[in-house]
Amino acid sequence: MAGMKETQLSAEIELLLTDNKKKWNRPPISMNFEVPFAPSGLKVRYLKVFEPKLNYNDHDVIKWVRYIGRSGLYETRC
Known about the structure:
- By secondary structure, the chain is mainly beta.
- The chain has a domain at 25-78.
- The chain is 0% helix and 13% strand.
- Strands 1-2 form a two-stranded antiparallel sheet.
- The chain starts with 28 loop residues before the first strand and ends with a strand.
- This is MHD domain-containing protein.
- InterPro entries: AP2_Mu_C_sf, MHD.
- Pfam families: Adap_comp_sub.
- Residues 1-77 form the MHD domain.
């Protein structure tokens, strides 16, 4: 695996219709990911969240989990 490359993951989530009339609050966004080359020292430097369908806009989202993170479980509330 050559260095100095960027990989991007895009995902789409479909919401189910519900008859519940309660006011909707934004749930936390949870992510669990693994970097399969962890022994090589590969690190996740940035994790950016952009989600227009759930109405998370750029000002509501904490853009970066941390400057240098490692693979694992991250959760953020907006």
